[in-house]
Design goal:
The protein is of the alpha/beta class. The chain contains twelve helices and twelve strands. Helix 1 packs parallel to helix 12 and helix 5 packs across helix 6. Bound molecules: 3-phosphoglyceric acid (3PG).
């Protein structure tokens, strides 16, 4: 089998070496396409491979069409909104992610961003402490739970909302307070951290109505996807509320406008870096390679997302 690693944003050298060793160790061919700039390079590289490992790289219907031998795509990471699931399913291609493997890296960044924006982006101006404040976690999955633990260590009160979790012990075991609606989460919490995927239901869902419920001195942290924010309504709210801060690991489309209008109440990392640690690269990369080998040798579909 030919296994392609196609990463516009490359893995660390150690992660690449680890993936290569797993792929070649099971007598498969390893192919690497790193830091590519044009989609045409991806289209060429996928031509005769059976498996692909990606990060935020886009697996479109066109890519699927070009990849005549493709059997499996593994998104080394959590969110798979970059993969055309319908196109893959139509061709019988299995799509997987590697849940949890990069979560700690993202959670650590959430804490860093929260402190950075509350300390005036590290300028000498008097900032705000997070201890004693209320943190609301929207979607209590792998990343959200770790964020909750770290926030409690900082002396924050932690609240969470996740309608997909029916087992209430998840919240009690983590020592966080579950709220029963999004509106309640936003009305209660000084800081909100988003951990929702980008789906037709969540896109544009973080809007004026929700954000305007947050108490004075509010901070919104987005390490999820830029698409979930209603950007025009965010601008409206930030124009009305001089106390409101927004920090993101995915630059919004209107980043320039936000910087111009709101100065140090807004910051976005220059390139999405939540999962960009040596540890996360290695964990997610190795998991992806192992899942591919297990799929081919044992038919293991444990992490399939297009069932
Ligand atoms: C994820 O969904 O796993 C994160 O957003 C990380 O994405 P990346 O691998 O493109 O950095």
């Amino acid at each position: 089998m030919k296994v392609l690693v196609a990463t516009g944003k490359p893995f660390s050298k150690e992660a690449v070496a680890g993936i290569k060793s797993i792929v070649e160790g099971s007598n498969n061919e390893f192919i690497l396409l790193e830091s590519y700039k044009e989609n045409s390079e991806l289209l060429e590289a996928v031509k005769d491979v059976e498996a692909i490992i990606i990060r935020s790289d886009k697996i479109t219907a066109e890519v699927v069409e070009a990849a005549k031998n493709l059997k499996i795509v593994v998104r080394a990471g959590a969110g798979y909104d970059n993969v055309d699931l319908e196109a893959c399913t139509a061709k019988g291609i299995v799509v997987m992610n590697t849940p949890g493997q990069n979560s700690n890296a993202v959670a650590e960044l959430v804490i860093a961003l929260m402190i950075f924006i509350n300390r005036g982006q590290f300028t000498p101006k008097a900032g705000k402490e997070v201890s004693g404040k209320k943190l609301g976690i929207q979607a209590f999955g792998n990343v959200g739970r770790i964020v909750g633990r770290y926030a409690k260590g900082l002396g924050m009160e932690v609240y969470a909302f996740d309608p997909f979790i029916t087992d209430k012990s998840v919240f009690t075991n983590e020592g966080v307070t579950e709220v029963s609606s999004l509106e309640e989460l936003y009305s209660t919490c000084d800081v909100i951290s988003l951990h929702i995927p980008a789906t037709p239901k969540t896109i544009n869902s973080i809007n004026y109505d929700l954000l305007s419920r947050m108490p004075k001195g509010a901070t919104l942290i987005n390490t999820a996807r830029k698409e979930v924010i209603n950007e025009a309504e965010l601008v409206k709210l930030m124009a009305e509320r001089e106390d409101f801060k927004y920090i993101a690991d995915i630059a919004p489309n209107n980043a320039e406008e936000l910087t111009e209008k709101f100065g140090n109440r807004f910051f976005a990392t220059p390139k999405k870096m939540g999962a960009q640690t040596a540890e996360a690269n290695l964990n997610a990369g190795i998991a992806a390679a192992t899942q591919i080998i297990n799929f081919f040798t044992k038919g293991d579909r444990k992490f399939q997302v297009n069932k």
